[in-house]
Design brief:
about 150 residues; alpha+beta; Small Protein B, Chain: A; seven-stranded antiparallel sheet; 9 strands; about 35% strand
Length: about 150
């Protein structure tokens, strides 16, 4: 049995800069047909999106999936709430983490796993300004070390 191919659609680079990622999960998404076609065309944007837990269900809020021009019946709404497919234990754990510890849940990446659309979500803690500067310094130092190794 071969593993399905993973093809990235959109990444939330801003989340990696603004947040410290504590835990990652993979979730399925409930989509309309025109949304899947739009995702195949690469029309997704994860900026300003987050995951909200309401009535024991996980919802992807604020994700923009652009319209698909050739939609035959009725086009989808670009910023509608989309249900995430997680099991009850995972939803309970996420709800507990976000209410008790002041953490938040953001989507990190949307991708195709074979024929299915998946979302990688992360439980994150916001970075302060000095934390961002520190991680930038570490990244620059690592880049200088790598450059020095290649020059030898």
């Amino acid at each position: 049995m071969t593993t399905p191919e993973r093809r990235s659609i959109a990444r939330n680079r801003r989340a990696r800069h603004d947040y410290q990622i504590l835990e990652r999960l993979e979730a399925g998404v409930v989509l309309q047909g025109s949304e899947v076609k739009a995702l195949r065309a690469g029309r997704a944007n994860l900026i300003d999106s987050h995951v909200r837990i309401e009535r024991n269900e996980a919802w992807l809020v604020g994700t923009h999936i652009g319209p698909y021009e050739n939609a035959s019946f009725e086009p989808h709404e670009p910023r509608r709430k989309r249900k995430l497919l997680l099991n009850r234990r995972e939803i309970r754990k996420l709800h507990h983490q976000t209410t008790a510890k002041g953490l938040t849940i953001v989507p990190l990446e949307i991708y195709f796993l074979g024929q299915n659309v998946k979302v990688e979500i992360g439980v994150v803690r916001g970075k302060r300004q000095h934390d961002k500067r520190e991680s930038m310094k570490e990244r620059d130092a690592q880049r200088d070390i790598d450059r020095a190794r290649r020059e030898r």
